[in-house]
From TrEMBL:
Entry keyword Flavoprotein: yes
Assigned keywords, A-Z: Chromophore, Flavoprotein, FMN
UniProt domain PAC: residue ranges: 199-253
Domain of life: Eukaryota
Protein name (Swiss-Prot/TrEMBL): Putative LOV domain-containing protein
The keyword Flavoprotein appears for this protein: yes
Species of the source: Scytosiphon dotyi
Length: 701
């Protein structure tokens, strides 16, 4: 404004000086954070290049344009905050002293009108910012960080002009779709690292237009936190790099714009966004313990938003899906029978011997297994089952009744399994003079051997049969009716109406495993770990205190960057993945991790969870073959939907898993990182009630 009071000659001279000082100003924000070599070279080039030649008559126009841009940004963000501060009141009181009353009244009226137009929350702020951003001479995109995947919720016209993508094609997607084959991995790493920490990002990278044409893009991203310190938005400012004489000026303009953008709002977010933001992975890398109460927090946020909307007369947006209703208007719960069977199957096969023992103690369980053996089993397996049952009848008796039962069952001369399945020498004519206690004790040892044979040869096949599915379903109903049963499903004692029912079953199943299992919630920003089992702590050294963190805490200097990229792409596209990479334990020890990722979808096909099963792949550990076998068994049986329905792609996925495991188990024991045999080790028969690990073979002493 001072320039406008000067005469023409002085004004042009002063304007030229002001504009040159503006262009010569160093951009304090650009390139000062973590940056790639290309970003640094760009900034060095701009600093060493000559400024543009400017005619004196044009200088005033340039200064006015820059002043209007700056004033617009100040009016949008800084001035509204000033009006709400104590300084605004002090200025008004000062103006009332010695000023024209009419002018003061007009100013107060203007301020009151301005205050009435101020945003009430972060969402309203976004709407106001969008109207301003349309006039910016740079590509502007805004991503909502409380929505998983951080999709863009706004792009301006300049973005469409530069990239060729319309708003309909771009909004709702993550801006990574601009990347392509020649996009620099180091630039992507900087973007991912800085944004996960809530830091500014300035990076030069190769992007692609809609028509496939490459262009050099200088991307600056500004994180924005709301009044509750929730990571709400990221404002992306980008422009195509054209290395001409005007580059220095454009970089300075960019820096001025970025410094005018807010990094924190004095506004709260709507209740649903508050809930999602409260659950997000923390930018500090600390565990977010609130993830344990996810369902309650989301539900409370929905209820608060509905209440607020009802009070204001507005119609709330539907944030969460309701349960489907039948014709009678009663809410229908999701059918989890498939998941219950899949998780129960994993749990039972983890301890096949004890599970089969308990199952045979239940009449319905015995009948189901017996029917399977009669239909699909051999004569040998049927004989071992009869022997186990008759031996159990004897062993359950006490004192004289036990001897009487043994004598009576040994009197049968035709197809007596008590003779076929033991080495006891019994003379029928001398039954009354036989010393039964040592024979009964030996029979107990052989009964245990028959159980092992049935468990590892027949029970695994039984769990693949329709009979097992029918038995588990019937067993679940009996549990729901309050029966106390010797064998249990994964859902026993859990509330089927709980919103965390699936997660509760997963937790119960996972705690029976020796391998590591984690689950990431893909509905929560930052994909924090919703749960990890004790097996994960044993395999990696990281315990349950890490629930609520993003799993990248396992990474370190020796972690292969290309493998991290492969994992990230798998997470983004909801693809299964089988890989081996180097990770780090809490003490810095580097280990090879065998990792299998399994995506899980809800009934509507939405990407809900990602389950990660992992093993410390140490060829020198004699238990590693058992861990690999367990990993294969678990991943093969994990359902990819919340309801347990099997996707059509399951056979392909199973073959990929087998090929992957074959590649890491080939080469023989102790052959180095690539060599491992999956042959179970031999052991000795258990004493008392003990038993070897599932999958191990043993011979009687």
């Amino acid at each position: 404004m001072k320039l406008e009071t000067l005469d023409a000659g002085e004004r042009d001279q002063a304007a030229t000086k002001v504009y040159k000082e503006f262009v010569a100003a160093q951009g304090a924000g650009i390139g000062q954070q973590e940056r790639t070599k290309g970003t640094q070279q760009l900034w060095d080039f701009a600093n060493s290049s000559q400024g543009e030649t400017l005619e004196p008559g044009v200088a005033m126009q340039k200064v006015q344009e820059e002043a209007e841009t700056t004033l617009g940004m100040l009016a949008f963000d800084a001035f509204p905050r000033f009006l709400k501060s104590k300084y605004s009141k002090a200025v008004m009181e000062d103006l009332k002293t010695g000023s024209n009353p009419n002018e003061v009244a007009a100013l107060e009226g203007a301020i009151n009108t301005s205050e009435s137009k101020q945003p009430g929350d972060a969402d309203e702020w976004l709407n106001m910012f969008v109207s301003t951003a349309e006039s910016f001479p740079a590509c502007i995109v805004i991503s909502d960080m409380t929505i998983p995947g951080a999709p863009m919720v706004y792009i301006n016209g300049e973005f469409t002009k530069t990239t060729g993508y319309t708003k309909e094609e771009a909004v709702g997607r993550n801006c990574r779709f601009l990347q392509g084959p020649e996009t620099e991995p180091e630039s992507i790493a900087v973007i991912r690292n800085t944004l996960s920490k809530g830091q500014d990002c300035h990076v030069k990278l190769t992007n692609y237009r809609k028509n496939g044409e490459k262009f050099q893009n200088l991307l600056s991203m500004k994180p924005v936190f709301d009044g509750d310190n929730i990571y709400r938005y990221v404002i992306g400012v980008q422009f195509e790099i054209l290395e001409d004489k005007g580059l220095k000026k454009r970089l300075v303009q960019l820096d001025k714009l970025l410094r005018l953008l807010p990094s924190r709002l004095n506004l709260k977010s709507k209740a649903s966004a508050q809930a999602r933001g409260a659950l997000a992975a923390k930018t500090t890398g600390e565990a977010n313990t609130m993830i344990a109460a996810k369902e309650q927090i989301l539900s409370a946020g929905e209820q608060r938003e509905e209440k607020e909307a009802a009070g204001s007369g507005a119609r709330p947006k539907q944030k969460f899906k309701k349960k489907k209703k039948a014709a009678g208007g009663v809410a229908q719960a999701d059918n989890y029978d498939g998941t219950i069977f899949a998780f129960t199957k994993i749990m039972w096969l983890q301890d096949a011997v004890n599970t089969l023992r308990s199952m045979l103690m239940d009449q319905a369980g015995f009948m189901s297994f017996d029917a399977f053996l009669k239909q699909c089993g051999s004569q040998l397996s049927q004989t071992h089952l009869r022997f186990w049952v008759e031996a159990q009848q004897i062993l359950m008796c006490q004192g004289p009744q036990q001897v009487q039962a043994a004598r009576q069952l040994h009197m049968r001369m035709w197809k007596n399994s008590l003779f076929y399945c033991t080495t006891n020498e019994i003379v029928i004519g001398n039954l009354n003079r036989t010393g039964w206690p040592p024979l009964i004790q030996e029979m107990g040892r052989w009964q245990e051997m028959s159980l092992y044979f049935l468990a590892f040869d027949c029970f695994t096949r039984y769990m693949e049969s329709p009979q097992s599915r029918e038995f588990v379903t019937a067993l679940q109903l009996r549990e729901a009716n309050g029966e106390q049963l010797p064998v249990k499903t994964v859902s026993v004692g859990l509330d089927p109406d709980s919103p965390s029912y699936w997660m509760d079953m997963l937790k119960a199943m996972s705690e029976t495993l020796r391998i590591g299992l984690v689950v990431s919630d893909m509905f929560v920003p930052g994909c924090p770990l919703a749960y990890l089992n004790e097996g994960f702590a044993a395999q990696t050294g990281y315990g349950k205190e890490n629930i609520g963190r993003n799993s990248k805490f396992l990474q370190g200097p020796m972690t292969e960057g290309y493998m991290v990229e492969e994992i990230v792409e798998s997470l983004r596209h909801a693809d299964p993945l089988f890989c081996k990479l180097q990770n780090h334990k809490p003490d810095g020890t580097v280990y090879q991790q065998c990792l299998c990722l399994t995506p899980v979808f809800n009934v509507d096909g939405e990407y809900k969870y990602q389950i990660g099963c992992q093993v410390d792949y140490d060829p020198n550990n004699p238990e590693t073959p058992m861990f690999i076998m367990e990993l294969e068994r678990v991943v093969r049986n994990l359902p990819q939907t919340l309801t347990g329905e099997t996707p059509k792609a399951m056979p392909t996925r199973t073959q990929e898993l087998e090929d992957f495991l074959a590649s890491i188990t080939a080469g023989g024991t102790g052959a180095g990182p690539g060599g491992l045999t999956a042959t179970p080790p031999s052991g000795s028969a258990p004493s008392g009630g003990g038993h070897p690990r599932p999958g191990a073979s043993w011979t009687p002493a």
